[in-house]
Amino acid sequence: xxxxxxxxxxxxxxxxxxxxxxxxxxxxxxxxxxxxxxxxxxxxxxxxxxxxxxxxxxxxxxxxxxxxxxxxxxxxxxxxxxxxxxxxxxxxxxxxxxxxxxxxxxxxxxxxxxxxxxxxxxxxxxxxxxxxxxxxxxxxxxxxxxxxxxxxxxxxxxxxxxxxxxxxxxxxxxxxxxxxxxxxxxxxxxxxxxxxxxxxxxxxxxxxxxxxxxxxxxxxxxxxxxxxxxxxxxxxxxxxxxxxxxxxxxxxxxxxxxxxxxxxxxxxxxxxxxxxxxxxxxxxxxxxxxxxxxxxxxxxxxxxxxxxxxxxxxxxxxxxxxxxxxxxxxxxxxxxxxxxxxxxxxxxxxxxxxxxxxxxxxxxxxxxxxxxxxxxxxxxxxxxxxxxxxxxxxxxxxxxxxxxxxxxxxxxxxxxxxxxxxxxxxxxxxxxxxxxxxxx
Length: 440
Ligand SMILES: Cc1cc2nc3c(=O)[nH]c(=O)nc-3n(C[C@H](O)[C@H](O)[C@H](O)COP(=O)(O)OP(=O)(O)OC[C@H]3O[C@@H](n4cnc5c(N)ncnc54)[C@H](O)[C@@H]3O)c2cc1C
Hints:
Shape: globular
Largest sheet: 8 strands, mixed
Helix content: 25-40%
Number of domains: 2
Strand content: 15-25%
Number of helices: 14
Bound molecules: flavin-adenine dinucleotide
Number of strands: 23
C-alpha cells in the first residue's frame, strides 16, 4: 500500500478545507488535502457569500479573481412571509456597521470552490482529487494518526499525519469515525437545488419565500450569466415528493406559488437538480487527540440564515491558528490543549449565531409566529436591516439578541413606540471596524 505523509491531512477540499489548508500552508506547514471528487465540482447550495465572507476571500488572495468571475452582487434580502408580509433588508444601512464589502457575492459553487482550492495549492498545499477517505487510523492509545483512503482506480493509500482535519461536510465521515458528531432528530430538513434561465424580475436582492400553503421555504438568487439558483428546503416528510425527480420537485414547488409561477412562465431549468440532507448533525465538540472538525463537518447552519460558506472559511481561519501550534509543539498535551482552545474559539464565534438560527428555525415551523415577526420587520426597516446584517456576518448577533430587539419583534404593534426619524437602532458607530476590516 502507498503511504503518504504530511503534517496536516485535510479531508475535503470545500471552503472549510481549502481555507484551513491555505492558512496553514502559508505558515509553512506541510498540508495534504484529499477530496473524493474532481474539481470543478458542484455542491447543492444557494450560492451566496455574505458581505463579510469577502474578508476571508481577500485573506486567501482570491477576492478580485472571484469578483471578476461572472457572479452577481447582492445588496440585501427580501423575505416573503406566508401571510403576505415582505421584509426588505439591505446591507448598507443606518445601523453603523459595514461589511468588508457592501454587497454579498452570488456565484456558482463550481467556480468558487475550484478557485478556493487553487488558493490552497498556491499557498503550498498538496492536493489529491478523487481520493475517498474510508476510515481513520489510530495508535494503540486511541490517538488519530491519519486515515486510509481509496483512489479512483481502487488502490488503497495510507495517509499518515499527526493531525487530521475533517472538512468533509455534512454527515462527515471523519466526525462519525472520531465519534464527534451527534445526529439529532431536529431539524430533519432536506434541500433540493436547481438552476434556471429566463426567470423574470430577478434583482440585486436574494429572495426567500416561506410557506404560503407549501411546507418549507425557497430561496432565489441570480448567480451570474442570466442563471437563477433556486433552493427549496422542506421537512423530511415532504422530501418523499422529490422521488419523482429533484428538478421536477423544484419546478412544482415554485410554480405552486402564484407570485413565482408568473415569473417562471418562460423559465427553463438547465440541470436535473440535486438534493441534500437531512440537516440534523452537529458536533458535540470539534476535536479529539489528533483530529479536528471544521465547516459543515462541525456545524451545519440552516440555509435560511445562509452564511455556511462564511462559517466554513472563518472556521478554517480559526482552526489554522490553533492547528499550527498543535503540529509544531513536541508535547502531545500542548497539542491537545491547542485543539481544545480551537473548540472554545469556535463556540465563542458561532454560539450567538446558532441561537439566532434556532430562533428563525422555530419560527419557520410555525407560520403564524413567522408572519407575526415578519409584519414587525416589514414595518420597521431598521430592525430588518439589522437582522439582514447579522445574516451578512458583519452586524454582531448580540444586536438582535438584545431583549429590547426581541421585545420589539414580538410585541403587538400598538405597544411599539415610534422610533425617532432616521434613528439607528444600533448606537455603536462604524469605528468598530478594524483596520483589516475596511473596504479595499
Ligand atoms: C440548500 C443549501 C443552500 C445553502 N446556501 C448557502 C448560501 O447561500 N450561502 C452560504 O454561505 N452557505 C449556504 N449553504 C451552506 C454551504 O453550502 C456549506 O456551509 C458549505 O458548503 C460548507 O463548506 P465545507 O467545506 O464545510 O463543506 P463542503 O462544501 O460540503 O465540502 C466538503 C468536501 O468534502 C469532500 N468529502 C466528503 N467526504 C469525503 C471523504 N470521505 N473523502 C474525501 N473527501 C470527502 C466532498 O467531496 C466535498 O468536496 C447552503 C447549504 C444548503 C444545503
